[in-house]
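Researcher: Re-running this chain for the archive, since the previous output was lost when a drive failed. Same request as before.
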Amino acid sequence: MRFRRRAGRPKNTTTEKGGIDRSTLGVAVVYVTQMEGRPTIDEIHETITEKIGIRTTKKQVLDTAEAARKRGLLSINFDTDEKGKMLSRYSMRDVKFSKPPEMAQIKAVWVKLLQSKEAKEIQEMLEGLHEEGERKGRLPDIRDYDSLIAFWRIVTPVLGGMPTSEKLQTHRRVNGSIWLPLNLWLKGALRLELRQMNVSESKVQYLKVEDIFLPEKKVKMNKEYTVIGMAGPTKHEAILPDQIISTKISFPTTGFMSRDDFVKCLDGIRIGAKHKEFGLLKLEKVEKAK
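Model: Regenerated structure tokens:
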């Protein structure tokens, strides 16, 4: 998302109605997030309005936080309150201030903060003047890729989800092989794992996963596996348990997570149709890709 300033309005000043321009609000949102750790939008809005004295709305704060997240400044984390209600909390991703001042000092240092090099970098990113990983000639923040071969044992049947006229949901096929779109399935399965590792789920886009093509004649299958659901029984092609599947995965080692932590994320994932119940995979081993 790219912010556009209205013509004639100077950058980093309050508006004629007493509000604040979007670029400066971006600095406030990122700065308060760093200072408070993992705040909600309500908490960020409260600090900005009460501690800094900026007139803004909760929606403007939310829009600014999301823009900062898309630009690589913030990450989003999910939590629950004491009543089990889902909460979205924001945290720092890359840009960091050296040491936030105490809460009581924020208003006093606010003008000086806006003149800092960190504030200028935030403003430039939010304005789209340079992209993540390409700022001022620096190396990309996410880099140094490694590759491994992951081997999984199928624990529960992997169900096909492609409907046919015979009311049977099958696996896709390519040239006599069963196609398992692991690049799509694995990235989807890893999003929750990344959240639990306090890694932005958006970083899943930096993974490269090779799809799997299984020769149909060598795969043990149940051609009409019946699943009883809320809408009644459905029939699926099912790749049966205790078979080994493997694929190559490339991932960054800088700006992502360690190799060991990433390998932990690969165990116990689910793939295929109805993956909340089926398609459980147990990681057997990983090997260095050649």
